[in-house]
Amino acid sequence: MTPPVLTKFTATPLLNPGLAQQSLSVLIKGTDDLSGIRNVSSFYSGRLLQPGVWTIDEARVEDVVGNPGKYNQAALAALGNTTFTVVNTGAYDAVAPTFASGQVLTPTVSLSAIARGTANQAPFIGVRVVAADTGSTAVAGVAGEYELCELILWGQAGNVQVLASAACGGSTDFSTLFATTKITLTP
Fold it and tell me: Which element (helix H / strand E) includes 27?
């Protein structure tokens, strides 16, 4: 019942998104008394491409059997560097997208039904979401083809299920859940 312990946490001090192959790197070391570390997540406030000095505010760690640990900014700072500077002379998007409207296209689904046109596939549900992004298209609206990689379901009781697509390294075959998993953005 003991969570993992972080022993080192050091962020890359400088990030220049204008250069190729730039990413924020964090060196993390830790120990666990029994099962091993499964996941470490870190969080910061701000927009990654916006120039300025940013601080990693929190990290969460979990071992293989699910024992969680949480570190605030002061605890992380005691383990290493938690700040990084973003230098970006190019365009960056400082405007968050807005939710314009949404529609549940399939309000009733029979769990015993079969999807039309298939021999044994569970029925699809449909949701339409319309969002607007008035930010810089240099960052916010990169045209191209994208893959649906993750689906998060929240129940009213607070239960959460995360499905990660096999096409993106997860274990769920999204082609059995969606008619298509490709999303095309056009200018």
Answer: strand 26-31
Nearest to 113 by CA among 105, 102, 121: 121
HEC profile of 43-71: EECCCCCCCEEEEEEEEEEEECCCCEEEE
Sign of the alpha-carbon torsion through 13, 18, 23, 24:
positive
**To the nearest 10°, the Cα dihedral for 168, 173, 175, 181?**
-20
The rounded distance, in Å, linking the Cα atoms of 10 and 78 is: 10
- Once rounded to an integer, what is the mean pLDDT over residues 171-178? 82
Query: Mean of the pLDDT values across residues 17-37?
Result: 81
Question: Would strands 83-86 and 14-15 be described as parallel, antiparallel, or unpaired?
Answer: parallel
Q: What is the pLDDT of residues 58-68, one digit of tens each?
A: 999 988 888 88
Distance (Å) of CA 55 to CA 5, 42, 85, 149? 21, 11, 9, 28
Residue whose entry in the numeric block shows the structure tokens 């009733």: 108
With 0-12 / 13-18 / 19 or more C-beta atoms within 10 angstroms meaning exposed / middle / buried, residue 86 is buried
| Two tokens, residue 104 | 């549940």
Nearest to 17 by CA among 90, 93, 96: 90
Strand, helix or coil for residue 166: helix
Q: What is the rounded CA–CA span in Å between residue 127 and residue 148? A: 14
Residue 90 CB coordination number (10 Å): 13
